């Protein structure tokens, strides 16, 4: 998988239990360790995907320069996710949740009619 999308973060696996996702991830890791040529092929494919994505993003910016800041935000989220979760395929995968605003206390209310 790759590009920051670990097996647990893939939309098509959303209906599986965490145990099933974990079992698939472990089987995938074992298969790739057993076949280094297959692992190398996957790494080459991931690199091609990254190159393609960069080209698409450059074309998007050319078509609409305003999307550059949005793409920068996405890249920052990817970096944060990969750094905080151990990189692609990390256990507990999935995109990071956007920061939540701090809770503000409800204003005090005065009792009425007493």
Summarize this structure as a short list of keywords or feature phrases:
3 helices; flat; about 55% helix; mainly alpha; about 0% strand; about 110 residues; disordered N terminus
Describe this structure in words.
- This protein is mainly alpha-helical.
- The chain has a domain at 15-85.
- It is 56% helix and 0% strand.
- The longest helix has 28 residues, at 36-63.
- Mean pLDDT is 77; it is low at 1-9 and 86-104.
Percent in strands: under 5%
Mean pLDDT equals 77
Low-confidence stretches: 1-9, 86-104
Order of helices and strands: HHH
Number of helices: 3
What value does the Rg take, in angstroms? 21 Å
Distance between the first and last residues' Cα = 65 Å
Give the structural class. Answer: mainly alpha
**Assembly annotation:** single chain
Number of strands: 0
Estimated helix fraction: 55-70%
Largest sheet: none
What is the molecular shape? flat
Topology:
Layout: H1 18-34, H2 36-63, H3 67-85
Describe the structure concisely for a colleague.
The chain is mainly α and 114 residues long. Helix content is 56%, strand content 0%.
């Amino acid at each position: 998988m790759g590009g920051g999308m670990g097996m647990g973060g893939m939309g098509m696996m959303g209906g599986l239990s965490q145990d099933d996702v974990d079992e698939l991830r472990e089987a995938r890791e074992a298969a790739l360790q057993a076949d280094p040529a297959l692992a190398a092929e996957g790494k080459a494919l991931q690199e091609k995907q990254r190159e393609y994505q960069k080209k698409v993003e450059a074309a998007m910016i050319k078509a609409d320069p305003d999307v550059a800041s949005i793409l920068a935000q996405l890249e920052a989220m990817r970096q944060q996710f990969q750094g905080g979760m151990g990189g692609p395929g990390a256990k507990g995968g999935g995109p990071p949740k956007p920061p939540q605003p701090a809770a503000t206390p409800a204003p005090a209310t005065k009792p009425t009619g007493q």
